[in-house]
From TrEMBL:
PANTHER family membership: DYMECLIN
Family classification: Belongs to the dymeclin family.
Protein name: Dymeclin
Keywords: Lipoprotein, Myristate
Taxonomic superkingdom: Eukaryota
An annotated GO BP: Golgi organization
One Pfam family linked to the record: Dymeclin
Organism expressing this protein natively: Chloroceryle aenea (American pygmy kingfisher)
Entries under InterPro entries matching the protein: Dymeclin
A GO CC term assigned to this protein in UniProt: Golgi apparatus
Length: 669
C-alpha cells in the first residue's frame, strides 16, 4: 500500500506504517494521522484474506511491540480514534461519510495491532503498552488515564448507540470484532482464565451500566441478519468529477492518500456464501456467547449471563424486577424466527441451548408456540446429519431435545403435528408422518450410529432419556417408527449375545493360560444391559400409558415376539418384562382365535379391539420415566473452549496462527 502502492506485499515498506512503528513519538494532534487513516479498501471478510494481511504486516507489528513502550504511538492512535468517535453519532445523522470512514480505518488498525499484541504478551504486559504518557524530565504526574477501559467503553457505546446504516455497518462490525480480540487472551492460555484484567473492566466500572443494552443490541444484530452493504456504498460514492472513491482531505493530505486495494484482488467477486451471510450477525452472536461464558468474579457474578438469563418478551407487561439486574425486553417472536432459521450454525444452536436452559421466560414462550415444528425440524436435521457435524454440535442439539421433552405438553403436541414429505430423511420415503414419530426415528438413528461408530455412553444416555420422557405420551406412532423401536431392541439383543459369547470364550481360554489379562467384558455387558433395561422401560411405559393409541407398536412387538423370550427369566429384566409378556400373550391369543392368513389390516383391527378389551389393572404400574437435564459441575471447562473454537473456526473477519493457540488442540473444534 502507500502513496503509490497497490499490493499487500509492499505494506512492510509503507512510509506511514513505518513511521507509526518507528522510534519517534507522534503527537495525537499531528497531521500524520489524517494521512495514515486516509485509505480505502474492501474490508477482509474471511480468515484467508486476514492471514495475508497479517503476514504482510508482521514486521511492522513487531517493531511497534518493541518501540511502543517508549513512543506511546499505540496510545496516540487510540486517542485519535476516541476523539473522532465523540462526534460519530452526529456524523451519522449528517451522513458525514468522511468522518465515519477515518474512524473506521483507525479502529481497523487498532484491532489488527491488538490481535498481534495479545498473542505475544501477557495481559500485564499489554496494560503497560497502554500506559505510556509523555512527561517533562523529572516530573511525577498523577496516574495516566486508563486507555484500556476508555477504549472498551467507547467500543460498547459505539455498538449500542450508533444506528446501523450502510455507512456505519463496517465500523459497527469492527467494534464487535475488536471486543472479541480484546477477550481473545483466553486463546493463548491452557487454563480457564478467572482473574482476567479485561474481564474486570467489562464486568464493573464504566462498562457495567451498558450491560443490558449491549446484550440486547447483539441479540438484535443476530435477529436482523443484516447483510454487508456492497463494497463502496459504506465509504464513498463515485464523484461527479471522476475523482474516484477517495476525496482529497484538507491541509494537503490528498497527495498522501493510500491507494484503494482489495485483498482478494481488484474486481474479485465475493463468494455466494459470503453474499448470503451477515458478518455483523455472526460476529455479534460470537461476542454474545463469549461474554455469556466469562467466569464469575469472586465478588461479582457475570452481568452478561445475568442479562441473558433474565430478559423478557416485549409483550410481557409485568414490571422488570429489581431482583434481576440487567434485565431488559426483546421481541420474542423475532428471536424465535431467527433461532429457527439459523440452526445450521453451531453458535445459533448453542444460543438456543443457553436460552432454553437458563432463561425461563424464553423456555415458557417456546413451549407455548403452536409452530414448534419450525424449531424442532432443524434440530432433528442436525442429528440426522451426525456424520457431517462436530460432536459438540450434536450434543447441543440432543440436549435441546432433552430439555424440550421434559415438558408433557410438548410431548403431547408433537404427535398432533403432521408433516408432509421430509426430503432430507433418505432411509425411507415419508410422505406423511407426525413430528413425534419423526423425532423418535431420528433419535433411534443417532443411537444406532453411536453404537457402530463413536460408542459414546453420554450420547446414548441422553438419547434414551429423551425417548423415555416422551414414551408415556406416544400417540399414533407411524408404523416405521414402531418398527425402528423394535429393530433397535433387536440390535441391542444381538450385541448382548455377542458380548456374552465373547466373555464365555475368553473365560474358557484363560483356564489354560495365566499370562494374558482378561478383557473387561463384565463392564461391556453391564453397559449393554443398562441400555436394554432402558429400552424395555420405554416400551413398557408406552404400553401401560397409551397402548390403545399405538396399534403399530403392538403389531411390531408381536411380529418380533421371539426377541423377548431370552429376557423373560433374566434377573435384570424379569420385573419389567411382566407387562410386555402379558401384552404379547394377550394379543397373540386373540390373533390365534381369529385364524390363520390374516392381512395386516385385519391384524391391526384385532389389536385395536383388543386394546379396548385388555383390563388396565392387569398391567403393573412402574414409576413414571422422567429425566431432567442437569448441567455438569464447572460447565465453563466445556463451554469456554467450545465457544472459542467457534470463534477460531468462524472464518469471518478473524485469523489466528494455529501454532499460538493454547486453549484447545486444532482437532477439537
Amino acid at each position: 500500500m502507500g502513496a503509490n502502492s497497490s499490493s499487500i506485499s509492499e505494506l512492510p515498506e509503507n512510509e506511514y506504517l513505518k513511521k507509526l512503528s518507528g522510534a519517534e513519538p507522534i503527537s495525537e494532534n499531528d497531521p500524520f494521522w489524517n494521512q495514515l487513516l486516509s485509505f480505502s479498501f474492501t474490508t477482509p471478510t474471511n480468515s484467508a484474506d486476514l492471514k495475508l494481511l497479517e503476514e504482510a504486516t508482521v514486521s511492522v507489528c513487531k517493531s511497534l511491540v518493541e518501540k511502543n513502550p517508549r513512543t506511546g504511538n499505540l496510545g496516540a492512535l487510540i486517542k485519535v480514534f476516541l476523539s473522532r468517535t465523540k462526534e460519530l453519532k452526529i456524523s451519522t445523522e449528517c451522513q458525514n461519510h468522511l468522518f465515519i470512514w477515518q474512524a473506521h480505518n483507525a479502529l481497523f488498525i487498532i484491532c489488527c495491532l491488538l490481535k498481534v499484541f495479545i498473542s505475544r504478551m501477557s495481559e500485564e504486559e499489554l496494560q503497560l503498552q497502554f500506559t505510556y504518557e509523555e512527561r517533562a524530565p523529572g516530573s511525577y504526574g498523577s496516574e495516566c488515564e486508563d486507555l484500556i477501559e476508555e477504549l472498551l467503553c467507547c467500543l460498547i457505546q459505539l455498538i449500542v448507540e450508533i444506528p446501523l446504516l450502510d455507512i456505519t455497518y463496517s465500523i459497527s462490525l469492527e467494534a464487535v470484532t475488536t471486543l472479541i480480540v480484546f477477550l481473545s487472551c483466553q486463546l493463548f492460555h491452557k487454563e480457564i482464565q478467572r482473574e482476567s484484567i479485561i474481564h474486570k473492566y467489562l464486568m464493573r466500572g464504566r462498562c457495567l451500566p451498558y450491560t443490558s443494552r449491549l446484550v440486547k443490541t447483539l441479540l438484535y444484530n443476530f435477529i436482523r441478519q443484516e447483510r454487508s452493504p456492497p463494497p463502496g456504498t459504506h465509504i464513498f460514492q463515485q464523484q461527479p468529477d471522476g475523482g474516484g472513491l477517495l476525496y482529497g482531505i484538507a491541509s494537503g493530505v490528498a497527495t498522501g492518500l493510500w491507494t484503494v486495494f482489495t485483498l482478494g484482488g481488484v474486481g474479485s467477486k465475493p463468494t455466494q456464501q459470503l453474499e448470503q451471510c451477515s458478518p455483523l450477525a455472526n460476529q455479534s452472536l460470537l461476542l454474545l456467547l463469549v461474554l455469556a461464558n466469562l467466569t464469575d468474579a469472586p465478588d461479582t457474578p457475570n452481568p452478561y449471563r445475568q442479562a441473558i438469563t433474565s430478559f423478557k418478551n416485549t409483550q410481557d407487561n409485568t414490571a422488570l424486577s429489581s431482583a434481576t439486574p440487567h434485565a431488559f425486553q426483546i421481541n420474542f417472536n423475532s428471536l424465535y424466527t431467527a433461532l429457527c432459521e439459523q440452526q445450521k450454525s453451531d453458535q445459533a444452536t448453542l444460543l438456543l441451548y443457553m436460552l432454553l436452559h437458563q432463561n425461563g421466560n424464553v423456555r415458557t414462550y417456546v413451549l407455548a408456540r403452536t409452530d414448534i415444528e419450525n424449531l424442532v425440524l432443524p434440530i432433528l436435521e442436525i442429528l440426522y446429519r451426525v456424520e457431517e457435524r462436530n460432536s459438540h454440535h450434536v450434543y447441543m442439539a440432543l440436549i435441546i431435545l432433552l430439555i424440550l421433552t421434559e415438558d408433557d405438553g410438548f410431548n403431547r403436541s408433537i404427535h398432533e403435528v403432521i408433516l408432509k414429505n421430509i426430503t432430507w430423511y433418505a432411509e425411507r420415503v415419508l410422505t406423511e408422518i407426525s413430528l413425534g414419530s419423526l423425532l423418535i426415528l431420528v433419535v433411534i438413528r443417532t443411537i444406532q450410529y453411536n453404537m457402530t461408530r463413536t460408542r459414546d455412553k453420554y450420547l446414548h444416555t441422553n438419547c434414551l432419556a429423551a425417548l423415555a420422557n416422551m414414551s408415556a405420551q406416544f400417540r399414533s406412532l407411524h408404523q416405521y417408527a414402531a418398527q425402528r423401536i423394535i429393530s433397535l431392541f433387536s440390535l441391542l439383543s444381538k450385541k448382548h449375545n455377542k458380548v456374552l459369547e465373547q466373555a464365555t470364550q475368553s473365560l474358557r481360554g484363560s483356564l489354560g493360560s495365566n499370562d494374558s489379562p482378561l478383557p473387561d467384558y463384565a463392564q461391556d455387558l453391564n453397559v449393554i444391559e443398562e441400555v436394554i433395561r432402558m429400552m424395555l422401560e420405554i416400551i413398557n411405559s408406552c404400553l401401560t400409558n397409551s397402548l390403545h393409541h399405538n396399534p403399530n407398536l403392538v403389531y411390531a412387538l408381536l411380529y418380533k415376539r421371539d426377541l423377548f423370550e431370552q429376557f423373560r427369566t433374566h434377573p435384570s429384566f424379569q420385573d419389567i418384562m411382566q407387562n410386555i409378556d402379558l401384552v404379547i400373550s394377550f394379543f397373540s391369543s386373540r390373533l390365534e382365535q381369529a385364524g390363520a392368513e390374516l392381512s395386516v389390516e385385519r391384524v391391526l383391527e384385532i389389536i385395536k379391539q383388543g386394546a379396548v378389551a385388555l383390563p388396565k389393572d392387569r398391567l403393573r404400574k412402574f414409576p413414571e420415566l422422567k429425566f431432567k437435564y442437569v448441567e455438569e459441575e464447572q460447565p465453563e471447562e466445556f463451554f469456554i473452549p467450545y465457544v472459542w473454537s467457534l470463534v477460531y473456526n468462524s472464518a469471518v473477519a478473524l485469523y489466528w496462527n494455529p501454532h499460538d493457540i493454547q486453549l484447545f488442540t486444532m482437532d477439537s473444534g
